[in-house]
Amino acid sequence: MLLLLAMEAGTARAGDQRAVVELFTSQGCSSCPPADKLMGELAGRRDLVALSYPVDYWDYLGWRDTLASRDNSARQRAYAEARGDRSVYTPQIIVNGPAHVIGSDRAALKRELSRRPSLPVTVDLRMAGDLLEARVDGALPPRRKMATVYFVFVAEPVTVDIGRGENGGRAVTYHHVVRGIRAVGMWEGGPATYRLPKSEMAKMKAGHCAVLVQIEDGGRPGAILGAAIH
What we know:
By secondary structure, the chain is α+β, with helices and mostly antiparallel strands. The protein is 19% helix and 38% strand.
């Protein structure tokens, strides 16, 4: 399975991203390390934007996740509400917003990715002097009037020595951990540019920045139309 995933990697121009893969994980979950390892492979692919969201709702099991945030847990629950189900678990991978698979199931992830064309909206993310600049272009889906543009602050890989709980005694490396998400504007279709000071990355202790162009349904996250990571 690893070979099948690796074969799909390659150079991707801005806008050629095939999918956004969001992993919800926890240091207190014994089933998560295989998914965290898989995320390390996905983070190296240029045709994907791979993001890890450590959640805090397993902290009561004996180990407080050192990377988790309530915002990450809330995003996962909001996805479940948007789908109309209660499928909130770890490890869980969400693909392009609506679909989800078990985060360590390589075959299920490959099948899900194979069903999806490249994201339809182009996003060109660059660092221009002291600015983070995202250029978005394309068309909204029918009957949609706008989508939200998010800047996502992403940490460099970090290895955590887990002292207690289900993974006690293990050292696990986490890749592309989300440190914060900021909505920077609404996109109504066509060419548009969005900017933030580059200093925001230092404030968030981020080594990378990603951009998501995402539809919202009743204030809940929906389909992702475009993405990029720098």
